[in-house]
Amino acid sequence: MARRLWRLCNLLMAAFFGLAAAVQVVYLVPAALTLLVSINPSITDNGVWRSLCDLHSAGCIVGIIALACSLFAYAQGNILHEEEGRELFGLVIITIWMSLCRSSAKSPLGGVRLIAAIVVALFPFVSWLYIYVNKEMRASWPTHCKTVI
Fold first, then answer.
1. Dist CA 13 CA 124 (whole Å)
2. Could you give the C-alpha distances from 13 to 144, 145, 147, in angstroms and in order?
């Protein structure tokens, strides 16, 4: 049961990362890595997979720091209303998910880590729904965002 849930979570995250990659290329690598994990969870033991995961996670951490500094200096309200805030959350999601995937090679996910995986897998979709139905947030979108979805 836990293995099926883990694979389903990876499939959901691969779908999220794949959809997000249509807008931001940074999501392409985690989309591919996560799809591979959903197909074959033991791929996380592969050296190439681990190296790509580590390299991409390191880049995301640098991006998180840069965006957090920018938001700290210039944010004027709810960070979800800022483009940089949404990008920051995306990079955090990538980093958390890649960490969960990487740690799954050592021991199968279960208990708290599986619950964390389920929460993280559902978070992007719940966030998208919230942002989409929130009229105040939609009103503050730039023009190019209003034609999406």
1. 9
2. 25, 22, 24
Residue type present at position 104: S
pTM exceeds 0.85, yes or no: yes
Residues with Cβ within 8 Å of residue 108, at least 6 apart in sequence:
2, 3, 6
Name the nearest CA neighbour of 142 among 83, 85, 90: 83
Task: Give the tokens for residue 107.
Answer: 């021991």
114 with 1: CB under 8 angstroms?
Answer: no
Tell me: the pLDDT tens digits for 37-52?
Answer: 999 999 999 999 999 9
Nearest to 140 by CA among 85, 89, 70, 64: 85
